[in-house]
Amino acid sequence: MLVLIMVLLFTLVLLLAFYVINFVLSIKDMGKNKISAFECGFVSVGKIQNSFSIHFFIMMLMFVIFDLEIVMFLGILVSDIGSYISFLMMFIFILGGFYMEWWYGKLVWVI
Question: Of 87, 85, 82, nearest to 69 (Cα)?
């Protein structure tokens, strides 16, 4: 028990030491570009000339959802019937969302 406490304390001291060393040795540049928010390549200072199209965000969201669906589909190969049922429920839910996006015209790629 004493060895476990010693290892835990050593780990915490080492972690704190690395954190402090990193903070002391880091470069603290407070220029305008360093402290400004990064907005995906758009200039965040000044007047916005072009607005960001929501279609990019919708396509990214669909990619993430279908990527997670594929991961669950691969997991079903080595699982039981309960996982299969939950996968089918999630698949029906995702197909319903996809149908709604198609119905409301959000899948049209027009910028």
Answer: 87
